[in-house]
Amino acid sequence: MTTNTQEKIEALITKNKVFVFMKGTKLMPMCGFSNNVVQILNSLGVPFETLDVLEDSEIRQGIKEYSNWPTIPQVYINGEFIGGSDVLIELYQKGKLQELVEVALAS
């Protein structure tokens, strides 16, 4: 991963309290896993931003190296990597995702 790509990733996840690297956009997810993440975050009513990795191959590969996580989507809350679709579903079902988001938005 280039330094420029790493800096772009870090800028995105530090500038936004809740950020998702995904396939497609939050208005038009391009895979079921990305759609799951969008639906969960929308149901919590929290503001979040996204980046479509299909539009940027450097970020698409770079984010996998950055997080050491092989799949997309990837969710960051308060600059911290949380996980992908399965992790988000589990946190949501246990009520822990709401807590994470509330703490992030309050900080």
> What is the arithmetic mean of pLDDT?
95
Taken as a percent bin, the fraction of beta residues is 15-25%
Which H/E pattern describes the elements? Answer: HEHEHEEHH
Q: Which percent bin holds the helix content?
A: 40-55%
Structural class: alpha+beta
Task: Outline the biggest β-sheet.
Answer: 4 strands, mixed
* Shape designation: globular
Intertermini distance: 30 Å
- CA radius of gyration is 13 Å
Written overview of the protein:
The chain has 107 residues and is of the alpha+beta class. It is built from five helices and four strands; from the N terminus they run αβαβαββαα. It has a four-stranded mixed beta sheet with strand order 2-1-3-4. The N and C termini lie far apart (30 Å). The mean pLDDT is 95.
What secondary-structure arrangement, pairings included, does this model have?
Layout: H1 3-15, E1 18-22, H2 32-44, E2 49-52, H3 57-67, E3 74-77, E4 80-83, H4 85-94, H5 96-106
Parallel strand pairs: 1-2
Antiparallel strand pairs: 1-3, 3-4
Helix pairs in contact: 1-3, 2-4
Quick structural gist:
With 107 residues, the protein is of the alpha+beta class. It has helices spanning 3-15, 32-44, 57-67, 85-94, 96-106; strands at residues 18-22, 49-52, 74-77, 80-83.
Using brief descriptors, characterize the structure shown.
107 residues, alpha+beta
